[in-house]
Write the structure tokens for this entry.
Amino acid sequence: MLDSIPSFTRLVAELAKFPGVGRKTAARLAYFVLRQPEADADALAEAIREVKKNIRFCSVCFHLTEDDPCPLCTDPGRDERVICVVEQPQDLLAIERTHSFRGRYHVLHGALSPLDGIGPEQIRVAELLARLKSGQVEELLVATNFSVEGDATALYLAGLVKPLGVRITRLAHGIPTGSDLEFVDDATVFRAVEGRREL
Amino acid sequence: MFMHITVTEAIVLRHVDYGEADRIVTFLTAAGDVWKGFARHARSSRKRFGASLEPYSRVRVHWRPGRGDLASLQQVELLALRDGLRRELLSLTLAGYGCELAMEIVGEGGHQPGMFAWLDAFLDHLAAGGDPASARLLLELHFLQLAGYIPHLLHCSECFGRLGDPVAFSAARGGSLCDACASGRGEVTVGLATLGSLSRCLRGRPEQIGEIRLGATTLQETRPLLETALDSVLHRPLKSKKILEELLRNDRERT
Ligand SMILES: [Zn+2]
Ligand SMILES: [Zn+2]
């Protein structure tokens, strides 16, 4: 029925392009928009337009921002000497939520993934190297994921950065806070034992 | 409806994220089959699968038929994580190359008994910090043999005659060529001694992968020969190979 209405079909088709949204969900969302007050639907359309118009990548750290350089790069209270490298903007936000890090950031927008054909040239490594060569940075904290891709990226960065005399560190990985050992998976226990530290 | 759960030992070749929470995992099973399984909530919860879907690990998969071609993964036990791969970028990249090579040669839904044992030994060897160059050559050579593409090495592939030294080699014409059959076009040159080494390598078993260490000349002379042979088997260039070569080039430039 609704399928035969061109503007409805068009909205469904657009929504179905979202990751994890199939045609069924897209149709449900479209139906929701249809029943919304006009002002709400306008607000949604406007928000999408604004995002595309105002948000870009910071030319220093490549985080998403409305101002270039971004507030994280211009904040005088943050330590210039430490850069934390992450794969994606979401990872940066996860670290920021903890208030545990007060240095600068660098977003790679990916990780090395040979099977996907993603090498150093496909991610923001050259830009990171340029920042490190400026001479102010003393430590690089690698906070890429603990996946094959994230670990490969960390190894690659280590090889690149060590000759520059910059200290390179990696996020510790281990047992999730608040969890009982017996319920933690073997691989996590294995790596936690390997990465044990002095008390 | 009751559906039987099958248990299979396998190597995780790769995984791709699906939607918000799920993952699609490609396996090479001990029987030599390449197939894909669907791991529901593999990303959002670590309870069920934990790290057992990490690429290059050996696992025991409990699965049942799912929708379409995808098996539905019920449980995956980790048998070997091969954490040692993550200490060296070259090992990690080579592991990916080996897995992509297996995936391409067998093909999805394909069947190639014998490949599991070689890939398994290769990954164990790399994870233990073993010599990558010889292991790569052995893997490629045996994969070619298992796929039925192993070229004639120690006699002329066209007239079965005796070979000179050095030998002209053409994958397109079936392998080594004697002086009379060689045309000088599209051929690579290899020493007879190198062909002898390769022939001996072909008689090795997977568990011997760590014992065989080939000399620099053999490795160097074999590379173009293997490249042309692999090109004739593969349907497309391997993505991991480009990155592997970049890495090897950088290593050479640094030393
Ligand atoms: Zn910035
Ligand atoms: Zn001949």
